[in-house]
Each structure stands twice: as structure tokens, then as C-alpha cells.
Amino acid sequence: MADSNSTGLALPPLSLYVHIPWCVRKCPYCDFNSHAAGETLPEAEYVAQLRRDLQSQRAWAQGRRLTSIFFGGGTPSLFSASAIGAILQAADELVGFAPDIEITLEANPGTFEQQKFAGYRAAGVNRLSIGVQSFDAQQLDNLGRIHSGDEAAGALDMARRAGFDNINLDLMHGLPQQTEEEALEDLQRAVTLGPEHISWYQLTIEPNTAFYSAPPVVPGPAHIVSMQGAGRDYLARHGYQRYEVSAYGQAGREARHNINYWSFGDYLGIGAGAHGKVTLPGEGQVLRTRRTRTPRHYLAAGEGGLLTAPPVEPVAREELPLEFLMNALRLVRGVPVDVFSRHTGLPLSSLARQWGVLEQLELVEPLDERIAASAFGFDYLDEILQRFLEQP
């Protein structure tokens, strides 16, 4: 077993998350911080507030340039290309971009958003993540989506013509009364369109959603397991390798922004409800940050209050191993063992006792070169984390 003494915290790569909290309407399954947009959006005011927000956090960059930016929501594609461009210009001025920066924007497939794709590409966005969820008309209705399957296919074609060569399609499975054959039909249509990346994740019923109040009938656990296995095999046969719980990419097209999350990297979070993680090697601390969730409160914060003293919560030293594993174990190959010490400031031996128990249960790989779940254990990540937590 590899081991080393604690060498202290090192600065990991730095990303930026930008939250745009508005949608045309709230989907019944969505528990994200999203709010139905009115007839007009306070676009200019929000962009100005994002700049002030980033200005208040720029010291945490500590000389690093941004390796990736992700615009999430909500529906970021409700904002104009000029607004997205202004946000990117502020990020470049205040922090700076790595030469090969990955900049992702989430978009809906509706015609209104498609018309903006060329503008987003010209503004500097170089990766699109299109929220398809399903190509089936009945399932789209069940999910409260406002696009059709044909519009979803058209969105990818429009993105190609706008110059995008790095596109993700978001799809869901385990949908109301969905059969395995129907789930595979969604994947087959997606693969036919040829995106570089597919996110294929299970519908879960979360509190504070319409589905939680009136749950739909969804496939049972045995059907989900079979559906997932068939889907993984299909994607692998067509060149999409699973590298994270719900992420499948062509070779070299993994989402670098999300890999930074899962490798316990740093990210600044700006926008209503945005979260961040910051490493301060000089102080020996890892911080979690969060912004106020309600858009009107966020907009009202001005240059004082919440933005000059953002809510910050240091991660207790004893909580770092679990925090690290909650992220790193989501990666199929895990992470190199040295990442643990560099990103937590703890010796690898601090995992050893609990890891030994998990290894005996065949839930994890030996702690030699990588920190990773076993092929068997990868389907039981919650069990791994719970057993790790229970160990003295």
C-alpha cells in the first residue's frame, strides 16, 4: 500500500460555475434552484451583480487561471449571447483563462434557444449541453418539457452549423412507466445524432418537487438495474465509455469541468444559489461557499452585505476524507492516490483502516495506485460511503 506523510494542502485546478436561475417554467421533477421567468428578465442587472460577485471572490483564485466555466441553471440559454459574452469578459478580466479553457453552456432544445447558438459560439462558449431528457412525446409531456423530439434533434444540427464540435446531450431513464426498450430507443436516437458526450441519469423523486407531491409510477429496482446494464452496453458498443456514474464520452471528450469537481478541485460559484469550494494552503483550510438562493435577494445584495462577506463554511479536517470520497468515487477509474494528500493535506494512511474493511467486502480496489471503487462496488457507492462513515 502506497503511503506518505502529510505534505500540506496544494492548490488544485480552478473552475467557475455561473448559475442562471430562470426557466420558462418549472419541471415537475426539478429540485434545482430554478424559478419561472416572467415576461422580462433582469438580464443587465444580473450580469452586473455576477461581476460584483466574482470581484468579491477573485482573491481566492490565488494566481490560478480558470481551466473551465460552466453556465448552469435554470436555463442559461434564456440569456442573450451578449449577456453571456459580458460574463465571460468579466471572468477573463478578473481571473483569467487557461489557453485551453472549456466553456460549457446548458441549453434547451427549443427553437428560441437554437437561434442564439451562433451568438454563444462567437461569445466564447465552446461546449453545449442540451437538455433533451427524452425523444418520446409522451415522456416529454410527463416531464413537463416544452420541446419535441424533432426539436431536440434539430438543436444538435443547429449547434453543428453554429460551429460547436463538443456537444453533450442530457437524457433520463427510469421515467414514468418506461420500458427498457423505450429507454434504449432514446439512446439509439441520441447516438444517431453523434454527440461527443451523453449524460444518462436516472429520474429520482426529490422533495420539494411536483413529482414528490404526486409521485408517478416508475420502473422498479430490478427493471432499473436491467435498463442501466443494457444502456451501458449499448453506449459502449457505439464508442461512449462510461467514466462517471451518469457520464459517457467519446475518447478525449470527457467533461473537464465535472472531472475537476469529482477530483476535489476548486471552483468559484457565482449567481443565486451557487456553491463553491476553495483551498487556502497558507491557512490549511478547505472552504465551502454559497450564495443566497432567491434571485431578488441576490440582486438586492449590492456591493455590500452578502457579496463582500460571502457565507463561508470551513470543512473540518476530520470531514475531509468523506468529502473527498463522495466526489472521487464517482469516477469509474477513481483518482491517483497522490491526489488525496495534495487536495486534503492528509496522509493516505488516514484512509487505511476503513479502506481495508471495504476492500475485504470487495467494494473497493486495493489502495495502491488509485483510489477507486471496484467494478462490483461502483453500483453501491452509497453503501461504500455509509460503511466508511460507520468505521471508528
Keywords:
392 residues, alpha/beta, TIM Barrel, Arc Repressor Mutant, subunit A, 2 domains, nine-stranded mixed beta sheet, three-stranded antiparallel beta sheet, disordered N terminus
Distance between the termini: 20 Å
How would you name the CATH homologous superfamily of the largest domain?
Answer: Aldolase class I
| Tally of distinct domains | 2
Strand order of the largest sheet: 9-10-8-7-6-5-4-1-11
Structure, explained:
It is a single chain. The chain is an alpha/beta fold. It has 2 domains: 14-260, TIM Barrel, CATH 3.20.20; 318-392, Arc Repressor Mutant, subunit A (Orthogonal Bundle). It has helices at residues 43-57, 81-94, 111-114, 117-123, 137-142, 149-161, 180-193, 210-213, 221-237, 256-262, 295-300, 320-328, 337-344, 352-360, 381-390, and strands at residues 14-20, 22-23, 35-36, 66-73, 97-107, 127-133, 167-173, 197-202, 241-244, 247-249, 266-270, 275-280, 285-290, 312-314, 335-336, 370-371. The strands form 4 sheets. It has a 9-stranded mixed sheet, with helices on both faces. Strands 12-13-14 form a 3-stranded antiparallel sheet, with no helix packed on it. Strands 2-3 form a two-stranded parallel sheet. A hairpin with a 4-residue loop joins β12 (275-280) and β13. α1 runs parallel beside α2, α2 (81-94) packs parallel to α4 (117-123) and α7 packs parallel to α9. The longest helix is centred in the middle third of the chain and has 17 residues, at 221-237.
